[in-house]
Design goal:
By secondary structure, the protein is of the alpha/beta class. It contains 7 helices and 16 strands.
Length: 283
């Protein structure tokens, strides 16, 4: 069953219990990392995944909290003997800067380095990114300080849809990207330029007709304040939850919501926790 594991849920300032926002999409055929703000090899290991199974990396934009872990990821993969190719997707703006960054590390001279294949995406709504037997991924530009993309993932077998806003101000591009999605994962940094508040995320979810709203990239630890779930719930009447590090979303057969009750909605039910992971009900 395809699943999404949240490897980090915090905004640009991580805390002890919350790493910078990034996640991994796991299918039978491919394993796709979405952003890399820390050392993903350690996070994947904590999630019970083998980094050697990683086939693809989607880089949403070139801000440090989303891209700074990539040089270390590539170096560690090389040092640990990786041979299979890694596909990296992103906008021209983003991948040009990633290649320049890797040039400072002189990576072209690293002997026996595994193939890295760059896929440059146009700034166009619903651009195809990846199509495999488990899921299809499209990207759309969103509104941030620099060129950035949100993602729409359509799961083949279950016909479920997940959308991810990434860092963005409220915009119609995200509404269209997440139209009728079963799950919208939307950032909730705050009502500042280039970002959205939980209240604004709720408004986007309502406009899009999303089934559930999961908030991510919000202030954590000592920097947290207010009640983001309540704020989003002012306009969005569906399920609202805060994503936590190592939350697992399974996109399988739909089960009645009443089967889980309110506790499962925010991942707080102790019965859903196992091996450090927080299991959400199947979407």
């Amino acid at each position: 069953m395809p699943k999404v594991i949240i490897l980090g849920s915090s905004n640009a300032i991580p805390t002890k219990g919350s790493e910078n926002t990034h996640m991994v999409l796991v299918g039978k055929e491919r394993m796709v990392l979405i952003d890399s703000g820390s050392n993903p090899i350690l996070r994947l290991e904590e999630a019970g995944l083998d980094f050697n199974d990683l086939t693809d990396l989607i880089l949403t934009h070139f801000h440090p909290d989303h891209a700074s872990g990539i040089p270390l990821l590539l170096m560690d993969m090389w040092l640990l003997g990786r041979e299979s190719p890694l596909h990296i997707y992103g906008l021209h703006y983003t991948l040009d800067r990633l290649e320049s960054l890797m040039g400072f590390y002189n990576w072209s001279d690293w002997p026996n380095f595994f193939p890295v294949i760059f896929h440059r995406l146009p700034i166009k709504e619903m651009t195809p990114v990846l199509d495999c037997s488990d899921f299809t991924i499209h990207a759309s530009p969103v509104r941030h300080f620099i060129p950035n993309i949100g993602l729409r993932v359509e799961f083949t077998r279950s016909q479920k849809v997940m959308a991810y806003s990434c860092d963005t101000e409220p915009c119609e591009e995200v509404v269209r990207l997440s139209e009728n999605a079963d799950v919208l994962i939307h950032e909730a940094t705050g009502e500042t330029p280039g970002h959205s508040s939980a209240r604004q995320a709720g408004e986007v979810a309502k406009k899009a007709g999303a089934g559930r709203l999961y908030l991510i990239h919000y202030p954590t630890g000592q920097y947290s304040s207010g009640d983001p779930i309540a704020e989003a719930g002012e306009s969005f009447r569906g399920i609202v939850a805060l994503m936590k590090d190592f939350t697992v979303l399974k996109f399988g057969k739909r089960l009645p919501l009443s089967h889980f009750g309110r506790a499962a909605e925010n991942g707080s039910d102790s019965r859903t926790k196992k091996a450090g992971k927080i299991y959400q009900p199947e979407i």
